[in-house]
Amino acid sequence: MSSFLEVVDVHKYFPGVKANDGVNLDVRAGEVHAVLGENGAGKSTLMKLISGLYQPDAGEIRLEGRPVRFGSPRNAIRAGIGMVHQHFMLIPALTVADNIVLGDEPGGIRYKRRTAAAQVRALSQKYRLEVDPLARVEQLSVGLQQRVEILKVLYRRARLLILDEPTAVLTPQEAEELFQVLRHLKAQGTPVLFISHKLDEVRAVADRITVMRAGRTVATVPAADASPQELANLMVGREVVLRVNKPPRTPGDVVLSVRNLSVTDAERRLRVRDVSFEVRAGEILGIAGVDGNGQTELADAIAGLLPASGGQVAFLSQDITRLPPGERTRRGIAYVPQDRQRDGLVLDFTLVENAMLRDVSHPPFSRRGILQHRPARAYTERLLEAFDVRPRDPDRHAGDLSGGNQQKMILAREVSRDPSLLIAVQPTRGLDVGAIEGIHRQLLRLREAGKAILLVSLELDEILSLSDRIAVMHHGQVVDIVPAETATREQIGLLMTGTRVGESEVAQPSNR
Questions:
Q1: CA distances (Å), 141 to each of 5, 83, 148, 194, in order?
Q2: 8 Å CB contact between 134 and 117
């Protein structure tokens, strides 16, 4: 099978960084080719080179055997390369057809809306991407919006499709529908570059897999011959433990009780609606759901960062609904926020300064209003060692650390305070399999120590493997709470759409 796209010894440099350091890749006509790699391995830079956002500093990109150099994404799409980004670029108020033809409208300034709708309908039928051309984008599910993004590049006659983390916001059912679309595109001879960090997904949909590490391509293997363990080891460069060993445990007393909680955001939109649940000592309660269904607002309200507009939050049998965040922290609630760089760390501060942020005015870090640097430094050194934060230099700035080490630093600070409750929101988001392994180990250690953990994650595999019970949210409500030991991906996926197993209508929220 001939190569449609070839990347030959490509280099891309930024100040102080070799983002791509001699990358080689070939994508054949009619194949789904996956690219795997740790966070910072150079995958995104490579895709931006192929799609015209960047130009290589050295090396060559060939399209159907001919060298090409794209000065812009517009030049790349004209050559037949279309990229669907992880974050959709759609205008919600416009129709599907309007979004797809935007910038290349039939009739030009005399826009022929009916012609556009007919063209989009024919295109969607050809590629089995069924969607109503006249529907407004704001009315569509996330899965259908992704179809619109794919149709946008196909409308512009893309002959190579690049998908960047395409399943990040999809339910398992929507992900399987996407895979069917990719198989149909492959059958029609359209090559697909599939960027993902989910090992099982790439093995299910790809023909070949290229693994990147530290800006280089380290291997290209047939998907049918590659095990998840082998791929993980190639990504990290060492043996990685993929299976979560979660020993059985009987939960203790109720640590957190949430009753009929409702929360509005800064724009006064109701984001959490009448939610009730409990978390016990020695238990991990996972919160699952498609992104944007109120999970983050729920966690923020329990941590005290958002006020409750109704209902009650009780911690260790005490009502804390109106307590400020600092008081909740002092009582034993730790919080790992979703955005580690914006909310978790002060990037311009050293690791010592970040380690004592929560208790800077208390002994041993402060005495009579004077900072005590020696005990603060010794404390930070112990944290870096215990949680394997690298580099183990207390004087390094937090902004110098990789994403995985930043996350471990936040977890180290929060866990070191010996909390009764840990709220962890997206604790492994954007991390490589090696860093994920370490975070999971720490969460299970806390569970074994009898701590209560509220885990909010968009990674369904993470929720299923770590949780004791799973609460599924849809449109701000808890649709159901199910035992993790009997839950399946299909069951949780249906609940994420608001539908209970065996029901055709939207389920009512459960107040268990």
A1: 33, 21, 11, 22
A2: yes
| pLDDT tens digit sequence for 406-423 | 888 999 999 998 999 999
> DSSP labels for 426-447?
STTTT--HHHHHHHHHHHHHHH
CA angle 25, 29, 31 (to 5 degrees): 75
| Burial of 372: CB neighbours in 10 Å, binned 0-12, 13-18, 19+ | middle
Provide the CB-side half-sphere exposure for 201 (13 A, CA): 27
Q: pLDDT per residue over 310-320, tens digit each?
A: 999 999 999 99
> 10 to each of 22, 27, 70, 476, how far by Cα in Å?
5, 15, 14, 46
What tokens does 454 get?
A: 């509220």
CATH of domain 3-236: 3.40.50.300
Q: Give the tokens for residue 333.
A: 């609630």
* Distant-in-sequence, close-in-space partners of 268: CB < 8 Å, separation ≥ 6: none
Sign of CA dihedral 198, 63, 214, 43: negative
Q: Domain-by-domain residue ranges, the chain?
A: 3-236, 251-332+421-512
Topology of the domain covering 251-332+421-512:
Rossmann fold (3.40.50)
Count CA within 13 A, CB hemisphere, residue 327: 9
Amino acid at 407: Q
Decide the pairing of beta strands 3-14 and 58-63.
antiparallel
- What pLDDT is recorded for position 1? 61
Rounded to the nearest 5 degrees, what angle is found at the Cα of 425, between the Cα atoms of 424 and 431?
100
Tokens of 385: 């060692």
What is the model's pTM? 0.75
Task: Give start and end residues of each alpha helix (H) in 109-239.
Answer: 113-126, 142-155, 172-187, 199-205, 228-236
Q: How far apart are CA 88 and CA 357, in angstroms?
A: 36
Same fold, 3-236 and 251-332+421-512: yes
Cα–Cα distance between 328 and 201 in angstroms, integer? 40
> pLDDT tens, 317-335?
999 999 999 999 999 999 9
What values do phi and psi take at 150, rounded to 5? -65, -40
User: Is the pLDDT assigned to residue 501 strictly greater than 80?
Assistant: no
DSSP-based three-state secondary structure for 291: coil
| 487 vs 92: CA distance, rounded Å | 34
